[in-house]
Amino acid sequence: MDGIPVKRSQVFTTELVLPNDTNQLGNLLGGRLMHWIDIAAAIAAQRHCGRVCVTASVDELNFLTPIKLGEIVTLQASVNRAFRSSMEVGVVVTAHVLAENVMRRANNAYLTFVAIDDQGKPVPVPPIVPETEDEKRRYEEALVRRELRLRHRQPSSQ
């Protein structure tokens, strides 16, 4: 199976934080952001393998700063590494205050997706070909995170 460059899976989405997206403090609801992240990551996974993909895990989701009503949210997702039937997708979220022309990183997340066939069974996915130094770093770090995920899935011996 031939490898696929990371750039083929990249997704950029933009959302505007509206009143219905916020809590009583005027901050973007965490659940709404998680929904946006899941969608962007799913599209990246599906772009990579050309199949329907399902969320298997969200192993890291860091809320770095609140996102306020009226801010523009950009989500950048791409496959960091492909394994047998699973892929780690990284998502970086930035918030943009138009009036001040200031952008800041607001969130980052790592999700695992599994490619499935028409019967819902996992199927193999093509490997990733990292090209840039950043892609190579994310590729290597994805293996470390996968090993941690697999360790956490094992039953404890207590």
Quick overview of this protein structure:
The chain has helices at 30-49, 133-153, and strands spanning 4-5, 11-16, 53-63, 72-82, 86-97, 102-115, 128-129. It has 158 residues and is of the alpha+beta class.
The helix/strand class is alpha+beta
- Give the fraction of residues assigned to helices: 25-40%
Shape verdict:
globular
Quaternary status of these chains?
Answer: single chain
Poorly predicted parts:
none
Biggest sheet overview:
5 strands, antiparallel
How many β strands by DSSP?
7
Strands side by side in the biggest sheet: 2-4-5-6-3
Strand content: 35-45%
Q: Would you give an account of this structure?
A:
This protein is of the alpha+beta class and 158 residues long. Helix content is 26%, strand content 37%. The chain is built from two helices and seven strands. It has helices at 30-49, 133-153; strands at residues 4-5, 11-16, 53-63, 72-82, 86-97, 102-115, 128-129. The strands form two sheets. Strands 2-4-5-6-3 form a five-stranded antiparallel sheet. The protein has a two-stranded parallel ribbon with strand order 1-7. Strand 5 (86-97) and strand 6 form a beta hairpin. The chain is globular, with a radius of gyration of 17 Å.
